[in-house]
Specification:
22 helices, Rossmann fold, Thiamin_PyroP_enz_cen_dom, 6-stranded parallel β-sheet, magnesium ion binding, flavin adenine dinucleotide binding, Thiamine pyrophosphate-binding protein, thiamine pyrophosphate
């Protein structure tokens, strides 16, 4: 049954019908029709301080919960500000919906001086989204938002964009909301013929390995992958996005410990079959294709383009990772196929060797302190900073969706706002943000959001007054000609005091662990300043 309502009301009521419980945003004069409708809505609004924070919060919400994050921004600067976090969500396959206003349709692209006018706003967002659309009439709003959710929930989960111009937001139309509702994730099963071919390849192989990426996490395939690894006695290696797909304290899990020439590298060179679940096998995780996968690779991916982009497989299965792992497991069990590709004791020895010599081991005590303080199901939200790079190797992850890292786009400033989004999504979980002093200053204004919503998040700032990764590169590649890498920082303890929140300086791993545990007892954020030195 249709009803006559304004476009802004149609946006909010459609989001309600689609199951949205939380939106992140900053109001502006162009989005007041949406905000007026939110006043009477069941949807919770989380107010950020910058649209970059809005995007990272929605992304953190999506990664921690598995449900789409929703962001609302204004025309022009709101859109360009959120483009960076949406680029991150696109690179890391995170489902985020951005709803934005635009100038009235007759004036778009004409640059007549209207407030926030942008030459090609839709084009800006097309560059960083899976799908983008514009509502040209009020009547189109519900179906357009429903299509946006279908795009996020079907196939590869990536961000989408819906634009509603001012004349549509403020106009009236006959809107049918009864035809839309929550969209369930699509989980395509593997073709039976592909399963038979994969089982035949497994039967022929002597030494099988599993490689799990972010798609394995997104498909919630953990139980099936553990069972498959145990059925085959197969070691499991993961990408950074795949951390937690298999618990890293499982005796067959080698996690992210591969490095060229190390013990995991030597193990891989003995393999004759790799089963790859939900990974793009990208340059960062494979050392620009140095990862020595065997000639015979079976790749399982929901994205038909990604599956042929790197490391061409002997068999490509375009399907859901969990459904495929389950089908393989059932077929192997029905045929009585069980293997010991590697003895468990040998895999555990490989892990010990690799961990002892892994990159960043001299700083691992701080990462171990984080792990000791954070519960098994707690969420660690990382930034692009040296200690987090150490954590990629040395921080064991036991459950999916508990290690958030901005891998693909590699933007600084992710950790704090993404941790806010994660805590909003899972208020019962312990959530910790870890960030460098440089990256913290990209989005530190979101401390105000954490304070306003009384979020008990420990914010760990590793403080060395330097863009260390860049300085290391200048030392290595440019004969120590250092430029634009040394920082003049605020006093972070005093900064926290200005927000009226607790702060402490931790001068050792032991002090860090204790500070985090104490921070968990509060319903406000705690800033933990950790002075460190990375020799360059």
């Amino acid at each position: 049954m249709s009803k006559r309502i304004k476009g802004g009301q149609a946006v909010v009521e459609a989001l309600e019908r689609l199951g949205v419980e939380v939106v992140f945003g900053i109001p502006g004069v162009h989005t007041l029709e949406i905000y007026d409708a939110l006043y009477d809505s069941s949807i919770r609004h989380v107010l950020a301080r910058h649209e970059q924070g809005v995007g990272f919060m929605a992304d953190g919400y999506a990664r921690a919960s598995g449900h789409p994050g929703v962001a609302i921004v204004i025309t022009g600067p709101g859109v360009t500000n959120i483009a960076t976090p949406i680029g991150e969500a696109y690179a890391d396959s995170s489902p985020v919906l951005v709803v934005a206003s635009n100038v009235a349709q007759p004036w778009q692209g004409r640059m007549l001086g209207y407030l926030h006018d942008l030459k090609d706003q839709l084009g800006v967002m097309r560059a960083v989204t899976k799908w983008s659309g514009q509502a040209r009439r009020v009547e189109e709003v519900p179906s357009l938002l429903a299509e946006a959710f279908c795009q996020m929930r079907h196939g590869r989960p990536r961000p989408v964009y819906v634009e509603v111009p001012l004349d549509v937001l403020g106009g009236f139309g006959e809107v049918d909301l009864d035809s839309i509702g929550p969209v369930r994730p699509e989980r395509p099963a593997p073709p039976a013929a592909a399963v038979r071919l994969a089982v035949a390849a497994i039967e022929r192989a002597s030494r099988v390995v599993l490689y799990c990426g972010g798609g394995a996490v997104a498909s919630e395939a953990s139980a099936e992958l553990v069972a498959l690894a145990e059925q085959l006695g197969a070691p499991v290696i993961t990408s950074i996005q795949g951390k937690g797909a298999v618990p890293e304290d499982h005796p067959l899990c080698l996690g992210t410990l591969w490095e060229p020439g190390n013990a995991v590298d030597r193990l891989l060179r003995q393999a004759d079959l790799a089963l790859v679940f939900g990974s793009k096998l990208g340059a960062q995780d494979t050392g620009d294709r140095q990862l020595p996968l065997p000639d015979t690779i079976v790749r399982v991916d929901i994205d038909p383009e990604e599956i042929l982009r790197s490391y061409l497989p002997a068999l490509a299965i375009v399907a859901d990772a969990r459904e495929t792992a389950r089908a393989l497991l059932e077929a192997l069990r029905s045929r009585g196929i069980r293997k010991e590709s590697w003895p468990v004791a040998e895999v555990e020895d490989v892990k010990r060797q690799a961990l002892a010599g892994a990159w960043g081991h001299e700083h691992a005590a701080y990462v171990q302190a984080l792990r000791a303080a954070i519960p098994r199901d707690g969420i660690l939200v990382n930034d692009m900073t040296m200690m987090c790079y150490v954590g990629n190797r040395h921080y064991p992850v036991y459950q999916p969706r508990t290690y958030l890292f901005p891998t693909g786009y590699g933007t600084l400033g992710f950790a704090l706002p993404a941790a806010i989004g994660a805590k909003i999504a899972r208020p019962e979980a312990a959530v910790v943000a870890v960030v460098g002093d440089g990256g913290f200053q990209y989005t530190m204004q979101e401390l105000a959001t954490a304070v306003q919503f009384r979020l008990g998040i420990p914010i760990v700032v590793f403080d060395d007054s330097t863009y260390t990764a860049v300085k290391e590169a200048q030392a290595r590649e440019y004969d120590c000609r250092f430029i634009a890498v040394d920082l003049v920082n605020p006093d972070f303890i005093e900064l926290a005091a200005s927000y009226r929140i607790p702060a402490v300086r931790a001068n050792s791993p032991e002090e860090l662990s204790g500070a985090i545990e104490e921070a968990f007892t509060r319903d406000l954020p705690t800033l933990i300043d950790v002075p460190v030195c990375f020799p360059v």
